[in-house]
Amino acid sequence: MAKVTMVEAITMAMAHEMERDPSVVVLGEDVGLNGGVFRATQGLQQRFGKDRVMDTPLAEALIAGISIGMAAQGMKPVAEIQFSGFIYPTVDQMINHAGRLRTRTRGRLHVPMVLRAPSGGGIHAPEHHSESNEAMFAHMPGIRTVMPSSPSRAYGLLLAAIRDPDPVVFLEPTRLYRLNKAEVEDDGKALPLDTCFVLREGEDVTLVSWGAMVHETLQAAAKLGEEGVSCDVIDLATVAPIDFDTILESVEKTGRLVIIHEAPRNCGVGAEIAATVAEKAIYSLKAPIGRVTGYDIPMPLFKLEHDYMPSVDRVVKGIRKVLEA
Amino acid sequence: MKTFNLPDLGEGLQEAEIVSWHVKEGDVVKVDQPLLSVETAKAVVDVPSPWSGKIAKLHGKAGDIIPTHSALVDFDIEGGAAAPASAKKEDAAAQKAAPDSKKSTPIAEDSGTVVGNVPTSNAVVAETAIIRKKQKLEPQRVKALPSVRIKAKEMGVDLAGIPPTGKNDTVTLDDLRNAAGGGNRGGSAPSAPAARWDVPAKRTDVKYGVAEPLRGPRRAMHASMTKSRSEVAECTLFDDADIHNWMPGQDITVRIVRAIVAGCRAEPELNAWYDGEKLERTIHERIDLAMAVDTPDGLIVPILRRVESKNAQQLRDDLNRIKEATRNRSVAPADMKDPTITLSNFGMMAGRYATPVVVPPQVAILGTGGLRYDVVPVMGGIEVHKRIPLSITFDHRCITGGTACRWLAAVIKDLEKAQ
User: Fold this and answer.
1) pLDDT (tens digit, 9 = 90+) per residue, A147-183?
2) What tens digit of pLDDT does each residue of A255-310 get?
3) Which end of chain A is more exposed for a tag (fewer CB within 10 A), N or C?
């Protein structure tokens, strides 16, 4: 079994699916000759040719638009946006077409495309390179939003995203691309979408996180574990639609919930989780729901980015507040 | 001879690896001519020459890692005319180099990004990621609204033992009240019986949560305490007077006043005014004793005049008079002016010792706590004696600790007399 980083797992998933399914194509800026700015498509053009791994002009609206067109006509495009801050020109295409073509055509056409983009901060990048904008996509009907938090989930979820008959925005935490390695077997086994993954089981408090913040959340859970506090740690994985069954079941067990995300707090995905838990599990809550999030400001430039992103200490503090309530 | 240092090729990179040299020692180069290719964490870039001149020495060979800002190339500049500040030129070179980075050829080993710094490690992590089977949990956990939970916490009731009657098997406020009141309709007793817990009712004469301006005596207190805090170097000494030997019928307050007179006779320096700006001290012969009196309106401090010249009966009459005047708020301003020393007799409510605050220009204030029975060693045995706790605060700017101790010793000696 190969020991791979998250970015290598992503390459592996695309290569596997291109090998298996000739309708899968990869497109984006610098994805061919250059192998992608983060090297996620390294070697794919050499292996599958220029017809299936296409360098596009620097035009994100075009990348999304032709992906939708190809997808509607039976291809399975996997498009890369270089940085999440440059994803906004695709929004018109995604919200007006990708998300509604199935509805508009009463199911005659559908859009099996994947829009991949790096996401989140922590790599000391310049402005526009560090945003967490998953809530924006989560708010768009008809589109799945997925954020992996480990090499194996990146592999399994990307396979599932490519195979899914509908559009998936696949946001890859840049900070995790090479943070560590894991043993991932290139067996072509997809993981289920719309499903949470429980990474640590506990009784006292439910922690829900996704993307890069899963790492701070797990460290916080380990720290509190040393003090005898047992945390049920849930990786959301699919940010929209949310697998509320797993979350509600856990909250009914623990009675306490803390949501951790890097994106700004206001109207973040955490708000949706908190609202639904309040609607459906308020009788089980022993304490107010807590959130540990980024701030409601533009992501700061890199000298201050670590003040912005929730640290392990901030997460621990947020959990304690809910435990002591 | 000039030395060209490796410029920062962008984003604060710490080092670069030499891929290949395009020039060799002895070559004559022109400004902007590529000197070498280096590989940074970003990409392979060409570094242009900042100057025209002859290459004197190349620092490093292909494969070497060069820290940013360390020597790269030595130049022999023609005519020795110093080119403009090298730093500027280096920056210019860096600027030139940086935009080229995107054009450079793909590279096998790189940091995997064109911007920033992707954290990298080879650490292999193992994780377990469980997909939970959806199953209905047996309703063993208590279901209740947060408001009910808070109420239960306040009442000290464990919700677990209360039979739920609400929708979806929730424990309602009524269930809680019934359980707390002992009316367990279901017959099963709560696992933890509600403990009786009497919280005193809140005061109705207080305005809660409203900012109110300080008035009257409280305003005066603000002024005098602030002045004291900013001027006086306060030091407080504690001791007790053993009044076990008192004859019956002693008037405690009057005895304390007499003891103060005794203290001031022994050490008159505490019966004084001090002007901290002029550094002048005025010791008084007369003892005008201010008595701090707590009233609903705040602290009022009327004065017993010339206490050194009065007998017990006169002091008692004066005390009664000022007590009455204080109670009906008829103390004249003149009766609160220019005391020479202050007594704060706080002990009738609670408190043993205190650090009473000196009000300038006075230099001392005595605090007397509540009388209490103490266990005292007497002749190798133990007896229980009544004692008065004493706290004397003095202004250490003009009074020494020794003086204050002697003053307090005289007070105690007088207080401990039988009558």
Assistant:
1) 999 999 999 999 999 999 999 999 999 999 999 999 9
2) 999 999 999 999 999 999 999 999 999 989 989 999 999 999 999 988 899 999 99
3) N
Closest approach of A135 to chain B, Cα-based (Å): 23
CB spacing of A153 vs B131 below 8 angstroms: no
Return the SS3 of A186: coil
Catalytic: A129? yes
Q: What are the chain B neighbours of A252 within 8 Å (beta carbons)? A: 137, 141
Please tell me the pTM assigned to this model. Answer: 0.55
In chain B, where the domains are located: 2-103, 227-415
Whether B350 has its CB under 8 Å from any CB of chain A: the answer is: no
The topology under which CATH files domain B2-103 is OB fold (Dihydrolipoamide Acetyltransferase, E2P) (2.40.50)
Q: Taking a C-beta distance cutoff of 8 angstroms, is the pair B398, B363 a contact?
A: yes
Indicate yes or no: CB of A180 within 8 angstroms of CB of B125. yes
Structure ipTM = 0.74
CATH superfamily of B227-415: Chloramphenicol acetyltransferase-like domain (3.30.559.10)
Residue B102, Cα to own-chain centre: how many angstroms? 54
- The catalytically annotated residue of A16, A97, A129, A215 is A129
DSSP conformation class of A96: I
Cβ within 8 Å, pair B149-A245: no
Contact partners, residue A122, CB within 8 Å, separation at least 6? A130, A174, A175, A212, A305, A306, A309, B119
Spatial CB neighbours of B168, under 8 Å, sequence gap ≥ 6:
A283, B143
Contact: A123, B137; criterion CB under 8 Å: no
Please check whether the two domains, B2-103 and B227-415, share a CATH topology. no
Domains and CATH numbers, chain A: 2-184 (3.40.50.970), 197-324 (3.40.50.920)
Structural contact between residues B362 and B270, judged by C-beta atoms closer than 8 angstroms:
no
